Amino acid sequence: MLPLTKRSKSLLAAALLVALAGCGTTDDPAEPRGGARKEAAALPAVPKEEVPDGLPGMPPVLDPKDVYAADRPNRLSPVVKDFPSRVYVPNTNSNTVSVIDPATYRIIETIPVGIQPQHVVPSWDMKTLWVNNNRGHTLTPIDPATGAAGKPVEVHDPYNLYFTPNGKYAVVMASLDRELVFRDPHTMERKKTVPVSCYGVNHADFSADGRYFVVSCEFSGELLKVDTENMEVVGQQKLPFQGAMPQDVKISPDGKTFYVADMMAHGMWVLNGEKFTTPTLMPTGKGCHGLYISRDSKEMYVPNRGEGSISVFDFARNKLTKKWWLPDGGSPDMGGVSADGKVLWLSGRYDSEVYAIDTTTGKQLARIPVGSGPHGLAVYPQPGRYSLGHTGIFR
Q1: What is the DSSP letter of 4?
Q2: Chain segment 293-315, per-residue pLDDT in tens
Q3: How far from chain centre, in Å, is Cα 23?
Q4: Could you tell me the pLDDT band of residue 53, with boundaries at 50, 70 and 90?
Q5: pTM of the predicted model as reported, rounded to 2 decimal places
Q6: C-alpha dist (Å) from residue 177 to 21, 50, 125, 208
Q7: Which of 11, 66, 120, 270 could disulfide-link to 88, CB 3.0 to 4.6 Å?
Q8: Using one digit for the tens of pLDDT, what is the confidence trace for 10-34?
Q9: Which residues are CB-neighbours of 113 under 8 A, at least 6 positions away?
Q10: What secondary structure does DSSP assign to 268-336, as a single string?
Q11: In whole angstroms, what is the distance from residue 268 CA to residue 282 CA?
Q12: Which residues contact 167 (CB under 8 A, 6 or more apart)?
């Protein structure tokens, strides 16, 4: 037997992962809006072109031209395919999580959690949902198979939570502590603490190869570039806008560009992550806050919290093409896209409500009262092979 080349090994590993991911059927028109299918559909085939080397231990990229190739409508992995479809809403001021049935738009349960829950975050292996109780200094695990909450885990200042692409570490965004804390992804035992000089670390996303990630610093208007494997800050810059307040971060499908929402600059910064040069601002609307990719990787939904609108960005055309306005106003914040890709779910941060929005027409489908201060809601389950954290970044 001839020895395998580096390229052959990479493709073989990718093929094995795809084979293990399961197979099933595609979108069913009879499926309720926002619902998740029970079958696991086949993931895309591995392309013939060379798959770039990634972070050691990271699942090979399925498509070098689209980091979201595993996130197609209803392509649920065997891990999550039997989980009931739910929307989990952390109510920051009520210290609860409202659980919504997306098929009926009704709250079916209210779960007491710790003090000031900020985000509901799917674990890397997608088996657990972690509620980030920022001021309670705990993480509350929720079993998405049963909806039951487990015993809280003590973690200091967990404003937000991410996972390295190889699943080796959880990364806690300790906003008030001014730290990035690398922890065991299951026990949350502290492994390494990385102090930062900026204020308010809060959101992030990883490069296509997983070797670095970009972090937003809300209160000092800065961005960080962090080496994933070495767990160290390798770049830092101040955004070129007085009073900048960067929020959510997302990478483009082709892996070449990072977008950073900024609620005070009222738009999103467009950044070359590799060069980490000064980004340019693309205005979207007042209070630009979240960034969510469509299931076909063609568009990105951008909620503008300060004006009650959602801008739609077209990747191929590199421009904003639509703006949807909530009919009665509101404060659209964080959220996610349904498994079938038909519904965008967003929390109404200042209005104690949640919005369900048709991703084809922009029409508001439902407006659901929840607790006070709803923030980083998670739509679950979603397609993908593994989670990078936040309210659901899947690859």
Answers
A1: P
A2: 999 999 999 999 999 999 999 99
A3: 24
A4: confident
A5: 0.87
A6: 39, 42, 27, 29
A7: 120
A8: 444 444 443 334 333 333 333 334 4
A9: 90, 95, 96, 97, 131, 133, 136, 140, 149, 152
A10: EEEE-TTTTPPPEEEE--TTB---EE-TTSSEEEEEETTTTEEEEEETTTTEEEEEEE-TT---EEEEE
A11: 5
A12: 57, 124, 125, 185, 386
Query: What pLDDT does 25 receive?
Result: 35
Contact 175, 201 (CB under 8 A): yes
At 51, is the secondary structure helix, strand, or coil?
coil
Long-range contacts of 270-277 (CB under 8 A, 24+ apart): 271/214, 271/223, 273/207, 273/212, 273/214, 273/225, 274/207, 276/223, 276/225, 276/235, 276/237
> Residue written as tokens 């299931």?
295
β-bridge mates for residue 119, sequence order: 376
Q: Do β-strands 201-206 and 212-217 pair in parallel, antiparallel, or remain unpaired?
A: antiparallel
> Please, what sign has the CA dihedral across residues 273, 300, 161, 350?
positive
Helix and strand totals (H; E) in the chain:
1, 28
Q: Which of 9, 23, 102, 36 is nearest to 346 (CA)?
A: 102
3-class DSSP assignment, residue 13 = helix
Type of residue found at 34: G
End-to-end CA distance of the chain: 33
* 42 vs 208: CA distance, rounded Å: 22
